[in-house]
């Protein structure tokens, strides 16, 4: 990547660090949704010196943020009152629409809305319409990354929205991410969400493929270590495969980096987006079904690598020295 292209679309970790040092304006940021990702983002915003108002439907999930200096709100309207920026990180687009409608009476015209929930393309359009009726500056800004990069402030932010006003949201992106990629000037077109769905289609496919390879290893009596050693260092190898395999083999599926239930939701969004644009995604559809089976068998809140269990009629029995088909 040449320097010109990077300056147009990317802010690398070094530039992000400089940005944090140079940014003197402190914002009031309302964070709506404090699950795995939202809580980490709120915490990093507070650590960057911004005033954070946090709300979650279940208040107990938001309350730990008070130790980081966040003010916990009882309602969405209370959270967004006097906010410079509103950040939404909820389950899906329908939930965001419901919550922001509740917040509407307290929203100030001119407030920036950073919408980071992974949503359907149709939902993004509906949210942009709501923003327009409230006089908000709407930014379609999903993120790439799971629990660990979120907690470290190392997410990748995919952003689309008006150039006018970007200086207001840039400190927010700098606090939560290592890199920001601008992909458009009209958030209503869901340009960033389109890219996010494409990226997630790859992530979920690799996750399911890793689980199936380990499940097949168990079924055929193959030591999974032999499979991992076989491809190590070659073109078929990747760090992500080892990370998800280790989670399965070492029974380290909690706390989840990205939960099975959320992966199922995203997989369904991907299939739907493809179908609405003339693209049949058989693998993604099968992946969604695998996540659904894993959730139905009690693994919904575990890491998405737990889709491994969807390969069995029941959870595979553990033998001595054998954890979920390992070693």
Structural commentary:
The chain has 327 residues and is of the alpha/beta class. It has helices at 3-9, 13-22, 36-47, 59-62, 76-80, 93-103, 121-134, 147-151, 166-176, 191-220, 224-231, 239-249, 260-276, 282-299; strands at 28-32, 51-55, 71-72, 85-88, 112-115, 137-140, 143-144, 155-160, 177-184. It has 2 domains: 3-189, NAD(P)-binding Rossmann-like Domain (Rossmann fold, 3-Layer(aba) Sandwich), CATH 3.40.50.720; 195-311, Orthogonal Bundle (N-(1-d-carboxylethyl)-l-norvaline Dehydrogenase, domain 2), CATH 1.10.1040.10. A 6-stranded parallel beta sheet has the order 3-2-1-4-5-6, sandwiched between helices. The N and C termini lie far apart (42 Å).
């Amino acid at each position: 990547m040449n320097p010109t292209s990077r300056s147009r679309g990317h802010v690398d970790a070094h530039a992000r660090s400089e940005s944090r040092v140079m940014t003197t304006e402190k914002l009031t940021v309302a964070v709506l949704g404090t699950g795995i990702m939202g809580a980490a983002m709120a915490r990093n915003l507070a650590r960057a010196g911004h005033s954070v108002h946090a709300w979650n439907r279940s208040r107990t999930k938001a309350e730990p943020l008070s130790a980081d200096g966040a003010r916990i709100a009882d309602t969405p309207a209370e959270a967004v009152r006097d906010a410079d920026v509103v950040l939404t990180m909820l389950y899906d687009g329908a939930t965001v629409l419901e919550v922001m409608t509740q917040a509407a009476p307290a929203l100030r015209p001119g407030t920036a809305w950073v919408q980071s929930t992974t949503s359907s393309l149709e939902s993004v359009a509906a949210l942009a319409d709501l923003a327009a009726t409230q006089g908000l500056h709407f930014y379609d800004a999903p993120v790439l990354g799971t629990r660990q990069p979120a907690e470290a402030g190392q997410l990748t932010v995919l952003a689309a929205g008006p150039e006018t006003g970007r200086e207001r949201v840039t400190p927010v992106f700098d606090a939560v991410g290592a890199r920001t990629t601008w992909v458009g000037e009209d958030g209503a077109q869901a340009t960033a969400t389109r890219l996010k769905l494409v990226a997630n289609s790859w992530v979920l496919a690799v996750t399911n493929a890793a689980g199936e390879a380990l499940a097949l290893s168990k079924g055929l009596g193959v030591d999974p270590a032999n499979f991992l050693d076989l491809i190590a260092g070659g073109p078929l190898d990747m760090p992500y495969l080892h990370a998800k395999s280790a989670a399965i083999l070492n029974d380290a599926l909690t706390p989840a980096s990205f939960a099975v239930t959320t992966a199922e939701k995203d997989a369904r969004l991907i299939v739907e987006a493809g179908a609405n644009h003339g693209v049949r995604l058989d693998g993604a559809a099968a992946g969604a079904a695998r996540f659904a089976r894993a959730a139905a068998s009690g693994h919904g809140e575990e890491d998405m690598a737990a889709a491994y269990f969807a390969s069995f009629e029941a959870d595979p029995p553990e033998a001595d020295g054998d954890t979920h088909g390992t070693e």
